[in-house]
Each structure stands twice: as structure tokens, then as C-alpha cells.
Records
---
Amino acid sequence: MEGHDRRGIGGGARLTLSWRDVETARERIAGVAHRTPVFHSRQFDEVTGATVFFKAENLQRAGAFKFRGAYNKIRAELEQRSFSEVVAYSSGNHAQAVALVSKLLGVKATIVMPEDAPPAKLAATRGYGADVVLYDRYGGDREEIGEKLVRDRGALLVPPFDDPLIMAGAGTATAELLEEVPDLDFLVVPVSGGGLIAGSATAAKHLRPEITVYGVEPETADDTAQSLAKGERVTIPVPRTIADGLQVPCVGRLTFPIIQRTVERVLLVSDDEMIDTLAWTLERMKVLVEPSGVAGMAAVKHRKADFAGKKVGVIWSGGNLDPKRLATFLGKVAT
């Protein structure tokens, strides 16, 4: 089975995010976050039989949509109280975003990152001035480490997804997409902890209530798909996938009820399908998107749902890819 239908599941869950939250985030990040371009490829339309538009968050500051939520969160908190340090945990894109935002706003950043995080993401995080605390992804607990740092230092915790301000910031990308392409039939979004899709679906359903929202996960990281099928959050072992940004073992406590209400299905893609799509995008469109960021596009390219004849919006969520990993991926693509 490629995904799971949400209908009839989880009734009564309270939404924790509104369109007004997304609007406020747009006002807060205006002039700081990039308004990223929307790409279209006639060749991709021919391959898929759909008309597909790509919101290029791989070209966002720090290389991913994460900048939107991180800036909205830290700036909003600074408007309420003063603090001198923030703490975050991330495999890379959220880490870089928090590090850059902290630098811009003049606070110290300490980031908890897995030892096997891509070297380019580690280097970029440190390059923005953050201190990095490494841990074992498969044996350690990043939330426990982060929360201890917050207690010890009196710092602000900036979670990667399970926070209304983070979700609202993420949703601003879809708000921009629908301003440019208002008549989309589908929105396709990569899913990790659920912050991006919760914010995206909130914006999409307000601006175009009839739109259908699909999430996309790696086949080996299907915790959200399982959670929708069961009607409650399911935790899986830390997944093994090339999509390092989608390796969260459980969907968020706050994001899940929003996903239940607003997302039709979660589609699943393989590592090989993400590599194939990444290579196609680089070769045909001359754009670099990391495996996590290209997951939604892979679901459309490999026909995980019936998109034929429809207008589809896809979020390219990030483009931070180490050149050595890129070379390895391209070496696996048949010539």
C-alpha cells in the first residue's frame, strides 16, 4: 500500500493553528525571508501528465523552508521577553536556520545534531556561529539533551516542528505559492515531524478549501502514514533513509491533529525514487534539491496517486546536499 486515507480518523482533535497565525508570520518575516520563486517544467508535465508547479524553498535563506519558522519563532519570543541563548535539535536544515536567525537577531545558538549529520550541514551550522553538541542518532535522545541544555542555561528552546510559531512560519511558503498559482487541485508536501505540512495545509485549506493535500514520506520512515491508519501517533525505530531530514521516528503531538483534519493521504517513496527524481531535476531543470526536499516531486513523478490532468503544487523543502553524497547518488543512476 502506497499510503493511508485519513477519513473517519481522529475526530474531535483540536486544531492548534489558524490562518491568522500564518498571516502574522508573513508580516513578521517580510523583508527578511526570501520570497522564493515558483518553477514549472514542460518536460516534467509530459512525464507525469499533470501540470506541476514547484515552490523552491531550496533557494530560501540557509537553504530550506526552515528559516521561515525559525525566524518567526525567535523574533516572536523576543517581542515578549529577553533571552541571550536559544537551543535547538536538528539533523541539519533546522540547525542551519536557527543558527542564521540567531546571528541576525544577536543571540547565541547551541544546536544538538547527530554525529552522522551530513558534513556540509554541520559545517554550515558552525559557519553561522552556532555551538554544536553531537549525539548518537540511534542511541541518544536529542530532546532530552536539548531540554537539559535549556534548563541549565535558561535558554529558549526552538523545536524543529512541534510549535505553533514554527508551523505558522512554514505555512507562509504555501501562502505565497497559492498567490501565484491560485487554482491548484493538489498540494504535495514532504513530511517529517509535520511542521511543514501542518502549516502548509492550514494555509492551503483557507485559501482554497477544495484543494487536496498529500504528504510524502520515505517507505522506511512511514510513521505518519502508520499514525493516520491507526488514528493515534505511532513511534517507529529511527528510520534508515537517504532523506536525513525525514528521519523523525514519530509525528509531532501538535502537528498530528492538524494533519488528521487537513491531509487526505500520506504517500510513500523509496530511496531509489528520490535519487532518480533528484538526478532528473538536476539534469533537466538545472536545480539542486536534496533527497528530503525532492520527496514530494518523487511522489508525482512515480505516480503514487492519480494526478493526471490536474494542477499540482509541490514544495521543494530544501537543497542542502553535500557534494560527496550528491556524487554517490548520481553514481547510482543508470545512464
---
Amino acid sequence: MAIFDRTIVRLLPAVPRPVVQRLSSRYIAGPELKDARQAVRRLNADGKAATIDVLGEEITTEEEASAIVRAYQDVFADIERCKLDSGVSVKLTGLGLKLGYELCRNNLRTVVEDAASRGNFVRIDMEDSSTTDATLRLYRELRAEGHTNVGVVLQAMLRRTLGDIDALADLKPSVRICKGIYVESPEVAYQDFEAVRAAYVRALEALLDAGCYVGIATHDEWLLSEARRIVAERGLERGDYEFQMLLGVRPERGDELVREGHRLRIYVPFGRHWYAYSLRRLQENPRIAGYIAADTFGRLLGHNGA
């Protein structure tokens, strides 16, 4: 069945969008800000913090990028008004990175400055390796301008990551470390499952050695165990680090982390630009991709028998 599921993963772009949307709904709060608000309230009530993400990787115009900026401003106002324990995460393609570096920088600065005016925090997400240099450059430029309410994401699977940690060490950045799920070439990224795991542990150790605040983002049970061991061996306090997970993924394990006394943050995406994000989540979980096949075949059979 696992081989079948992985085969279906490769065919996901051909699957009808309504089917993808239904099966990925567990990972997305909904299309509107109110959906994210409700999700964050539930998480906060369970002792979990949140990071709200406005989905928007599929934007193609400056006007659409500006709309994403306004959406984030609405998010900050809502967080403040409702007293939610949440920051935000931004994808630079949603702010216009592929339309122009200066456009993206201006949009990002607007988001970060609005967050700062409300005492909030912005995490610059990392996308595929073609955007890594620009992402880290923009992060450095914001820090050079005096913005301290901004962090970044690094992907353990990329071969360059330890070098990036060393290059950023002088800033003592707030970093989310994740495995990374973008399809990359062997020259750019580790391909073997165990190699990626080993790279994750090396990156986590290097970040802590550099005095960074680290968001340990993983659902991998072995990595969770290793991270908890490292945290305990270093005698880190609850405010020195946090674990991070995705909405809808292993919520019971997240509850256990909270009960153990760890700070946990859940990534809460919302918005109408849901398709690209949904494909990545489903490609990350081939078992769910298998459900798509069963659902699609069932619909076809039902149609043919009508």
C-alpha cells in the first residue's frame, strides 16, 4: 500500500481540486480570518500558542501581493483585539518575491512594522532553495534596520544549512528548524531519510550553540525524542525554546508535549489561496494521498453505475 500511496502522490496535480480541498481541510483553518481566529482560540484554550499564515503562494500580480499585506494587517488587528497568543508566518512569494525583490522588501517591511506597532512577531518562512539567498538577505536587511520582531526558518535537508547558521550566528536569530519538504536535487539537499534526520540534529545543536531561540518544528517521533534529550541535557528553561507543529498533524502528540511542560506553537494557515499548500501537505503524507485515490475511484464508480 505504501508504494501505491507514493505513486498517487506523483499524480496529485491531476486530482480534482474539490477532492484535494476536502482531504486537506484538516490542515487549513478555513478561507476567512474568522476561521483562523476560532482555531487559535481553541489552541490557546488548550495551552498552545499559534502562528497564523495567510496563504498566498499563487499570487501573480502586485495587486494580489498588496492584498496579502492588507490581510496580515487585519490579522494583527484581530490578534490584538481578541488577545490571542499568536504571531504570524509569511511566505515571501505571497509578498511578491517572484515579481521583484524591491516590491517584496517593501511589502515585508510594511508587515513587520505593523507587527512591531502591536507588539507582535513575524516569522519569515522558507520556501524552495531558489528563494533561500533572497530570504536570508531580506532577513539580514530587516535586522540591520533595527527590526527585532522578526525570525526566519531553516531547512535541515539543505546541504547549506550549517553554513547559513554560522553566517547568521552574530544576529542570534530566532529560527524555526524544520526538515523541509520541497523537492530538491541531490546536489542541493540530502535525499536519504536518515541523512535528513541526522542533519536536523546537527542543525539544532548548532543553533543552540549559537545562542539562538529555536522553534523545533517536527512531527517525527525520533526527532522529538532527540530534541527533548538535547533540551534536558542543556538544562534549557521553557522560555528558551519551543516545539512547533502543523494544524491537524498529530494533535494528540502535541497535547503530550504541553502536558510535559514544553511550550508548543501550532501553525494555522487560512485563506483562499489554499491549493499549493494543500498539495505539499498531502505530498508529505502519502497515506492520505492514498485516500484521494480511493475517494476519486469511488466517485467514478458511483458515476458510472448511475
---
Amino acid sequence: MTSFETVRVAAVQATPVILDADASVEKACGLLADAADGGARLAVLPETFVPLYPSHLWAHDAASFNGWDELWRRLWDNAVDVPGPLVDRLAAVCTERDIHCAIGVNERESERPGTLYNALLLIGPEGLLWKHRKLMPTMHERLFHGVGAGDDLGAVDTPLGRIGGLICWENRMPLARYAVYKGGPQIWVAPTADDSEGWLASMRHIAIESGAFVVSVPQYIPADAFPDDFPAPLPEDVEVFGNGGAAIVEPVDGEVIAGPLYGEEGIVFADCDLAEGLSAKRYFDAVGHYSREDVLASHANAPAADTAQTELRPD
């Protein structure tokens, strides 16, 4: 039976300990405890929090190959095996504090060393519940991450309700959103590196479209967070590589009910009455009475020429 209780959620805007997986996970564990102390039952952390997001502000030259081997190696050395000991550490805190955690990581496969993936993990008191690999890395991200298989789109039943979501600009992909909507998410998690006003507008739209509370968590990455031995050049005129904007949005009118938080680390909280999502779907249910899959599914699969506007003929 789907839950319609009120759930306190936390959008945790934090800076990773760059290129240090152990320290980043240790920091995440402390932040989970802080969120639990604030009454949260779900805490959402940013995209690739462990151990680094390859920002276009400094990583756009990675396509040149030369000079980036050390960064790649250190990124791989500090990526996360899923399942694995770092996930177990996060799960232990979730068990101890009775909290669920959604967190972005660079994922590796130690049994077959090679490609890294931008992954979103959902962890609860019972352990790892869900892993989603980003379907399509954005622009320069393709120099660091492989593409996801797309077999992990959906929502997960938890004691808090049904939780689903997408990573960063996947949230702009209508068919990806629709695939997750079909799982009936009540809480939508959206870790990201986008701190723009346009991103927040997208989150408000998705809250209305999905009928779910949206927890959006961008990154806050000041320049002084980078270690002195960071193995890639950083632009000298940039003080912040991600200004944050953590926010929580309700599903009826798309109103921001917590945040946005900019320019600092911090946690924003909101109490989410999941029954509001049910009320929202009375008006608009994207995969129910408003879906018209019978008409639109064939258009989504048809070649572009077949979906062009029919030529108008005079009477």
C-alpha cells in the first residue's frame, strides 16, 4: 500500500573533500547525522559528491588527452564500488539514524577496471536500495563518464513512500522523466551541478508534471576547496565553481517551500505531505488520465519525417 504520510526531507548542499573518497564519505556520514538531528527521514546530497564533479569551468580541456592522466587515475582511485565498503559505511549511518540517503558518486567497477559512471545511489537502513547510472553525460562529462544502460529508470518503494528521480540534465529529457513517472514517485530526487535560475524553473515544472515533491541539490564548490596538488589547471579568475541553490518544491503549484540556498554549505528542510501529490494528480496525472499514450507513443517512436505537420490543403 502506498504511503501518504508527511515526510521530513533534507536537501544537503555540501562541498566534497575533493579527490578523497574516504574523507568525502566521512563528511557525508556527518551530514546524514546532522540531517537526522533535524528530523529528516530522507537526505539528498549533490551529484558526484564522491569525490568530485568534473566542472566545465575547469575540465573543458580534457579532450586534449595530454596532461590529464594523473587526474583520471586519482579520480578512478577515489571512485566508489557499488556495492562496496564505502556504500556500507553510508548504510551503517542510515541504519543507526533511521534515515534514507540519496547521494551522487563516481562509480567504478573494480572487477573490470576502466570506465567510470555518474551514479545516483539510494541507501536506507536496510542497505543499498537502488542505483541509477546517468543515461547521457553532458558535453565535457563524456570525457569522464560512460553512458547508463537505462535499465534502472523507475521508483523504489520505501517506508517513506515511493522515491525516484534523475541526475542533473537527465531531468530535461522528456522520455526519461516519463519512464520514471510510470513508477509513481512521490518524492523526486534531483542531484545536480546546475546552479542556474533555469534549473530551478525546471524543478518547479517537474514537481507539477510528476505530482511529486522535488528535492533539488546543486553543488557548492568554492575554489579554495581544491587541494594544492590538484592535477589539472584551474582558472585564476573563478572563485566559485558551483554556487548551490538547494531547494524543495511542492507538487500542486510548483512552489518552492524550502530554499533556494546559495553561496554556502547548508541544509534546507521541508515537511512533505505526500497526500498533496495525490491531490495534484486529480488535476494532472502525466501517466494516467493525461497521458494519451495510445496517441503519443507512436509519435515518440516514429521517424521525424512521419511526425511532421500534415500539409494544409485549401478547401
---
Amino acid sequence: MKTLRLVLGDQLCRTISALRDIDHTRDIVFMAEVHNETTYVRHHKQKLVLVLSAMRHFAESLRAEGIRMDYVQFDDNDNSGSFTGELGRALSRHHVDRIVVTQPGEWRVWKMMQTWGGVLDTPVEFREDDRFLCSQTEFADWAKRSKSLRMEYFYRHMRRKTGWLMIGDKPQGGSWNYDAENRKKLPRNFPIPPGRRFVPDVTTGDVMTLVRQRFADHFGELESFGWAVTREDALEALHHFVTNLLPQFGDYQDAMQAGKDFLFHAVLSPYINIGLLIPREVCEAALVAYQQGSAPLSAVEGFVRQIMGWREFVRGVYWMKMPDYAQTNFLNAKRPLPDFYWTGETDMKCLREVIEATRRHAYAHHIQRLMITGNFALLTGVAPAQVEEWYLSVYADAFEWVELPNTHGMALHADGGVLGSKPYAASGAYIDRMSDYCAGCTYDPKIKFGIKACPFNYLYWYFLIVNEARLKPNPRMALPYRLLARMAAEQRQQITKQAEQFLDRLESRYL
């Protein structure tokens, strides 16, 4: 049986299920760079270069293996700009008996694929994406058995399943997680080993030229591009992290420092999400470091939890709850996204630092996303769809299956508590504690009211006031609402007045 095997841009893995039983003598692997995928949101220029260059390198590696390739580049003549159109053209070039494809990561692509059997008049075989540690079926079964849909319980299930960091049925070291040890502020002048970056090769240079020409108006810079675009380089980045950064990753994984864009973070998520690295091998590399005594338990557990816990959990929630999940808006947030999310032009130093770093690298670590840009959007009531489009656009690792639950549920609490048990709202004190952003800022995190007050301070209490009916019944919000109840009426009025004045001018260029 002659087969056309489709590989998507986030499936750049030789062991992907669509390629597993390939017949080198008969089958054809089909890949296409299409307009619809590069523009359904205005992707960061570096994200476009990463994916398109990695696709071209992956195709070349398959050719070197003797596999017959049909590869459509973005600027090829007659490129229709869509997967469906390009599959139709490929079928006219090749007389095949069927199409084989691994299930996509995003709902919109899966919905499109459901039409192919009829539209293309060719049988389509969909295969499970088994790069993940937990299948959709297993997650759904776990969710049915569980009293509560919480990541912590899922994570424990996965620890027991894999045996990772376990002694029998008990967690290594006696605790399931070591978050309490992983919240240290980075000391001044603390030495940080450089992250592993890569010089663009000829193929990547060609893609950079394409992106400059075709996507000049997209967000982001290209000058600092240093992402791995091959499996070999991604493996080198993994080795560099485990050897040089993992030992102190746990201590400072929540820390933020101006001008230090990567700190001790792995920065491997783009490679995992497009298939250059496999989740299992990434976790196992960290586990080996622990077994050899070169990385502490708190660091390794925190790192493994991000992949085996959060990454797998949000994927399970996404596929279990879509498509209705994306439409929920528990807090009735409707305000438009401030323009400075794109320009970085704001007097709030923490926001400026994170947005400018995002422009430089298409990257910010999880606390910067959750507690700076996400926290501000939560406190100011920005419409979830607009925040989600921004995150999906600006980060190299952003694909909807992982971006949407993290933004919609974790950052914005728009799902009403499906993903997280409470809103992750915080005042300026948290930012001051975990970063050096407040030094030299126009605003002071220690001032509660007035022209010099950090906006996060009064916005935090205003957020509690306007959402009291929705949030006060939540047991995990009991403490802040007890504090709010003790607040004098005059102080509440002062908070409300200043917050509403701030929100009225939120569309201004500077804040």
C-alpha cells in the first residue's frame, strides 16, 4: 500500500507515529509551509524562523535516510497557503492509497482534518501522538476516577506510574514537591552561566531573509536569534542545561532580574513542543543528574514536575474541555489589551522588562508570564481572548494546547477554577520580593496610594472588590477577603477611585 505521510511543523520527530512503519521503497513524506499556519496569529518573527528552519532541517535529515520527500516551501509557485489545498495538490502528484498523519496538537487543526476524508477523496488514518507521557484516554480515565481535577493529584499519579523519584509508593525525600525551597530571590551579582545559543546556519539564514521580507510587520526582533533548529543541537542544549544550570535551577526558578533573560532556566520548551526533544528523554536526563549526585532533589523534582506534571496536565485539560473551554469568561473580563503589550512603552518597569525580553528572544519564563504580564491582565480585567492571542503570538514555545489552558485557566482564572483552584493575583510586594525590577521604577511597591504608588498595589485590592461576589465563596480566597472586610470604607473608596482613574487611561501610551 502506497502511503502519503504528513508531518506537521510541531511533529519534527523521527519516531513520530506517522513515520513509524514507513516503507522506504513506496511511501512519501509530505511537509508544507503554508500561509494559514504562519498568520492565524501574528507569530513572533523568531518563532516563524525556528519552526520553518527546523522543518527544512528535518526534511533534509529524512532525505539523507533515503526517504522520498515532497516538501513545499512558503514561496513555492502555486502554494495554496493551506494544509487542505497543499494535500490536494500532493495527491495529484502522487497516486497513493491513503494518507497517514499523527493527530495534531491544536483543536482548530483537528477540526480541519476531520473534513479531509471527504474533501480529498482519500482514506486518512489518524494515529495517536504518543510522544506524551499520558494519552488522552488515560487522562480522561484518571479524571473520571479523581475527586478533584488538580495538577498535584495528577502529578502524583504520574510519579507512581513512571516510578520517577519514588521509593516504592513513597516520594523520594519524603515530599511530593519542594516548592518551598524553590522561591529564592537571586542575590546581587550572582554568577549565571550563559545559556546555550546557536549561530544560524545557511538554511536558517535563508528563512530569516524570508521572514524579514514576508513578515516584517510581525512582533519581535531577529538579530538575537540563537535557537537550535536540529535534533543534534537541541540535544546539546539539553546537555548544557543539565550540566551547567540544573543544579541551581530549583533555587532560582521563580526569580526575575532585569537584563537577565534566561537565568537558570532550561529554555527547552520550544524544542520539546516541536519534536526536536522528547519529554521522556528530557526528564530522564535530569533524573540521571540526580542519581549521579550532580543536581539536588529539589531542582530535579521541580524540573520534572514542569514537564511530567504541568505540561501533561494542561494538555489533558485542553483535549477534555475543548472547544467550549476557550469561550468561558468567569470574571466577565472585557477590557482591550493595552497597546504597550506590543510596544513595551510603559513606565511600569517590570512590564517593560518582560515585554522587551519577549521581543528580543520570543521567550519569558513561567513566573514572568504568570506574575507580571498575566497578573496585570488579570487585575485589569483584559478580555481573555485578547490575552491568549498575545501569548500565542509572542512566544516560541506557544501552541494552543499548552498556551490556552495556562493563560485562560492559570493566569486569568477565566475557567472559574477548572485548572487552578484560585486566581494568581498579587500586589507589587510579590514582584519586589522575587525580582530587582522595582529598583529605579517610576512607582514604588511600598507605597499603597497616590501618584508614586505601584499600580499593582491598588489594582490588587480593586480586583478583590469588583469580583467579591464571584471569588469570596472560594475557600482559598478566605484570607484576602478577611483582610478586605477589615478595611475602612474610606480606604476602599480611595482604592476604587485611584484604580478606576488608572483603568480609564489604560489606553494611554505610558503608565
